[in-house]
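New to this. Please check this record:
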Amino acid sequence: MRLGIARRLRRWICPSTTWMATYHSRCPSSSTSKPWILKNNQLVGAIPSTLSQLPNLKILDLAQNKLSGEIPRLIYWNEVLQYLGLRGNQLEGTLSPDMCQLTGLWYFDVKNNSLTGEIPETIGNCTSFQVLDLSYNHLTGSIPFNIGFLQVATLSLQGNKFTGPIPSVIGLMQALAVLDLSYNQLSGPIPSILGNLSYTEKLYMQGNRLTGTIPPELGNMSTLHYLELNDNQLTGSIPSELGKLTGLYDLNLANNSLEGPIPNNISSCVNLNSFNAHGNKLNGTIPRSLCKLESMTSLNLSSNHLSGPIPIELSRINNLDILDLSCNMITGPIPSAIGSLEHLLKLNLSKNALVGFIPAEFGNLRSIGEIDLSNNHLGGLIPQELGMLQNLMLLKLENNNITGDVSSLMNCFSLNTLNISFNNLAGVVPTDNNFSRFSPDSFLGNPGLCGYWLASCRSSSHQDKPQISKAAIL
């Protein structure tokens, strides 16, 4: 049951003032400090301004409630407050210029509220702050230049409506471990001076309108673990200097306009767990050296202009969960060694120019949930071994030259999405097992198929049935 904060807190009268307390059984002495940790208590209503009168209040955590109204300005005049946690409420209003009066405050978190307005110019006076989290509000305006005077370890401004450039002065904030400017409307280039942030572990700038090239200087951020630059308007090539980031776990460059080849020395990022370059204009071949990234679980190079064959060396990345090379110009056969990736959950090689057969070795992919080989030039039969894939939920083989029947799929009991349309398949479509759940569109464009919703399996009937052209479906 939701109760107002004044009702949830037991009324408590002390010699000089009336208070509302939650777990104190007596008035606190001037020599004691007791934290007020009331997060996740379904509190509603406004924050009482009388909280500011609590002596020795060093920790105030009201996160994850339903509190509304504005943050009382009197709170900013509590001389001993060190920790203010208000995230996950419904607070409104603006950030007060008085917020920097708290000379001992090191933790300020108002994430996930409905605050509006701009960051006050006085922000540069908050020199005691170590954590400043303003993310997921409705803050506007530019990021003030004097934010660079802060000595914070964490600066999170994500999910607001900030505009304008990234202030270069941020590159002088040597204490920064986490810088999150993602999902705003920031524009202009990435300042090369950010490469001076030698202690930064997480750099998030995705979801903005950043332009220009990726500064090679980012390769100097020797402690960087996460580099997220996706969903911007970046151009140029991927700097080879990023190969110096040997501690990098996650590199996301997706949905930009990057060109040129993938640098071979990306393989020097030996701890890389995820590499996503989807939706760019990268060309050249897939580097064989990527096989050195033994820790990688996700490789997404889809929707680029990559050509050449799939390197057989990719089969050495034993921990791969996701391999997505779709929407490129990749040629040649599918390496049978891909079937040795026993942890693979998703394989997407669609919309390329692959030839040859579906490897029977795919039957060894016992964990696989999705296989998409559609829109290639594959031929041959559907391997019987695919029937061993008990976890397979999606199989897309449409728009190839596959022949034979579909009997090998009858034992794929988890399959709920199937598209084998526009091939050269023949024979009876089963009406038992799981085949009855599939859309009739799954089988279009295979004149030799019969049964199910298709023509009955009599030579005279299905031969007379008009064929549906691919153009009609597309």
Remarks:
- Helices lie at 5-8, 459-464, 470-473.
